[in-house]
Amino acid sequence: MRKSLTILLAVMLLVPALAACGGGAATQPTAPPAQPTAAPTAAATTAPTTGATDSSKLRVGLVTDLGKVNDGTFNEFAHKGVLMAQEKYGFEYKYIETTAQADYAANIQALVDEKFDVIVTVGFLIQEATVAAAAANPDIVFIGVDQFYEQGTVTDNLVGLQFREDQAGFLAGALAAMMSESGTIGIVAGQEIPPVKRFKNGFDNGAKYVRPDINLLGVYLPTFIDPALGASSAEQMIGEGADVIFGAGGPTGSGAIKAAAEKGVFVIGVDQDEYLTTFARGAAPGANRILSSAIKRVDVAVATEIGKVAEGTFKGNGIELFDAAGEGVGLADFHGTADLVPDAVKARLEEIFKALADGTLSTGVDAVSGDVDPATVPEPQPYTP
């Protein structure tokens, strides 16, 4: 059911107050406290199993991309999605935090060896290892976050969760362009992979849609886990005149917006509401400069797919798409900058969100590859303050 951007923003503001782990809307149950983390091994950090141990119930495991389940990125959102489902269905849960790309397959295999029924893997980069594990273990359900599988090309026990990052990015670009006084904005992006390309190209096209003469700065960085590199990249863009910075690269992007905000520049977060994470619910320096975050509801998507497994309705061999029409992507609340964002900007963002949701507005970005699709780039509709 399509809802307005205003409703989505209101939901995102209420979520933290109504769900202990930050996932889901008000109707979702409160998740239990996060599990303690055991001492790290050479390959990964693991958490002991929690929840029911009845052999008749599901056992769910999760393997993160590089990073941790509390890193403020889609790793954390995927973890929270499992916790949301765990509260409802009462299954046993264990996660493994990946510390090196070379460990993807081994971390998945560790959960296979422990006979988990469902394994969630997080990120585009772990896709190849996920496909191989699913093919070798047809009795285990695999759920891949940010992984694209063309229908009929993989096994029936594997589904990829895809998000229209280009739609969220488009909204972020429009917001940045309308809020910029210098006429220059920038994006600090992670590795040049499809989900990140969708964010970046959507951001660029959204900015040009409302302000055709905007000066766009942008960079892809080789890692998602280097906040210092993100910070230095943002500082370089600020030196070139950027007065709004969008960080779309995990902790690297978070480092970018944290540094920029501390210098008084407006910033936009990514994946989940970074006002709540990176800026510690307004307590961290620079919290008064974060405009919003381009969110994708990884928590809802993961919880939904696990629920399908628990209820016997799971279907694999393809993807599940979460977009603006289903509130799978959008903008987070403005929080402390709400009074700084003019009503005209808010109204224009709502208009854009509705058009993206009903399909009357294209982002001009290929929803699979993340590349710009020149044939579908929308004609500019300049914003007039």
Structure in words:
- By secondary structure, the chain is an alpha/beta fold.
- The protein has two domains: 7-164 and 298-326, 3-Layer(aba) Sandwich (Rossmann fold); 165-296 and 329-365, 3-Layer(aba) Sandwich (Rossmann fold), CATH 3.40.50.
- Helices cover 36% and strands 19% of the residues.
- The chain has a seven-stranded mixed β-sheet with strand order 1-3-2-4-5-6-12, sandwiched between helices. A six-stranded mixed β-sheet has the order 8-7-9-10-11-13, sandwiched between helices.
- Strand 7, helix 6 (194-210) and strand 8 (215-220) form a beta-alpha-beta unit.
- Helix 2 (74-89) packs parallel to helix 9 (298-311), helix 5 (165-179) runs antiparallel to helix 10 (343-358) and helix 7 packs across helix 8.
- The radius of gyration is 20 Å and the shape is globular.
* Secondary-structure arrangement, i.e. CATH architecture of the largest domain: 3-Layer(aba) Sandwich
Name the CATH superfamily classification of the largest domain. Response regulator
Radius of gyration: 20 Å
**Helix segment count?**
10
Molecular shape: globular
Low-confidence stretches: 1-43
- The level-1 CATH class of the largest domain: Alpha Beta
Number of strands: 13
Mean pLDDT: 89
Q: Can you tell me the CATH topology of the largest domain?
A: Rossmann fold
**Overall number of structural domains:** 2
Biggest β-sheet: strands ordered side by side in the sheet: 1-3-2-4-5-6-12
Keywords:
385 residues, alpha/beta, Rossmann fold, seven-stranded mixed sheet, six-stranded mixed sheet
